[in-house]
Amino acid sequence: MLKRSIAVAGAVAVLGGMNTPGARATEEAADAISGVTLDWADAEHTNVKITWTESAEVANTLTVTSTDPNQAATVFGSTLAGDQNAFVIDSASLGSSSNPAVKRRIVVAGAEAADQAQSAEFDTYTYTPTSLTLSFTTDNKVRWTLPADTRTDGTPNDKLDFPAAYRYPVQQRIESDPAGTAECNVVEVEPTTAATGVVPNPGKPFNLSVNTDNEWGTARGPVATVETTAGLTIGGPTVTQYGTTTPITGQVTRTIVAESGAPTVCDEQSVPAPNVPVVLQQRTSSTAAWTTIGTVSTDATGKYTAVATNTGGTPPRTQKLAHALWASPEPGRIEPV
What we know:
There is one protein chain. The chain has three domains: 6-118, Immunoglobulins (Immunoglobulin-like, Sandwich); 133-227, Immunoglobulin-like (Sandwich), CATH 2.60.40; 229-332. Helix content is 6%, strand content 45%. It is built from two helices and 24 strands. The longest helix is centred in the first third of the chain and has 11 residues, at 6-16.
């Protein structure tokens, strides 16, 4: 936009010469850029409008800068001399940051390095949670919950600020070919504007990812795995004396969905279940109720050791702890990763 006028430059040369202080001041003033302002171009907050003023028509280059040393200044647009002093850009193209303290500016420059002006500082913060809490609902579905966003706005009341409004895209990834490896069966769950939601139970292991989306783009969120019990063994002496202690040993294995490659391939795998609570129960006869006599945890290889006292009844049994329900025939375990 505002381009230097040849006629003006020539007149200056005649009157005082191009190298005089007065001539240089007049030339610099001729294409002065100022008043760089930012505002939303639409009610959906998907485009940012940049405007500025200048005293002569020149071509302009637009750059976004950041206080983050790992984010270099990026040229994102240009205008021709004679164009309007305005530029509209998709807000997600300006880049986002998980750090609310990072500040950005828009710099509008002319042909000369000194011919430039910058906007006020603004932030492009997008909440990027690092943890995801999962739990079972009463109807055996899975509820996911993200921690609250407790950020402190690094540029309060900047022109692009408005109340935080996030959208949470949710995805389940399931193995589609149990007999081998194949691309993941991806189930897109209806996005929510609340930091919690419920996903259906497919009756098999799956991986769950929850991203966050706002006016500055989508941030990849945490991933959690919902797994099932593949096996639970129990062993001990076949005969012990009444009243003596009996060593009980066993192992718990789990089925998970392992992802690899691009496009992503999902493969169900049976692996040891470390640090899993295991409940030991016994009863005094085949018709008596089972009673809990202790709880132990598996080691890094999924193995456990417990001690029971011979009360003269039915041999002990074990059950894997899962959402406070011991009687589930194949209880699932939820483990964030």
